[in-house]
């Protein structure tokens, strides 16, 4: 990891000073492709792929069908030690008597009352597939980049059988085996190229 970080720093340092905004193709375009590739690598070194949970604690009825997949995911996370799970009886008063109508699963994490981001793996950018120039705004060039990526070092719990029905999990499993596509827009700002918004993975 340290070697790759040093390599990215050297690539960015060498290319940043030699690749300007005035690019039309040829050798300069090749260098620009390498620069964007290095910038994407550096971005995902700083921002691994994560799963963001809503604010904790989370309460879900055990018998509610529309929350079954969400319940399965939280249950796996509790089994992996990321969350704690408690079961609470849900009751109502009927004819002055308390009637049990179901169970509520409460998921929490000690000391966490805000959104929790769990690591899923590292995004490895394979190559820049296309660079589409955008109309210039105030003479500041911009490109829409389409790139290929794959998920490395994926967490083991992604393959828990209980998650077989979750479409997002299925896509992540596929991304660990096959290249996927992503997009990002790069704008020229004064002396360097920047991503104004985070890359979008598909």
UniProtKB/TrEMBL annotation:
Residues 1-21 form the signal peptide. Keywords: Signal. This is Uncharacterized protein. It comes from Reinekea forsetii.
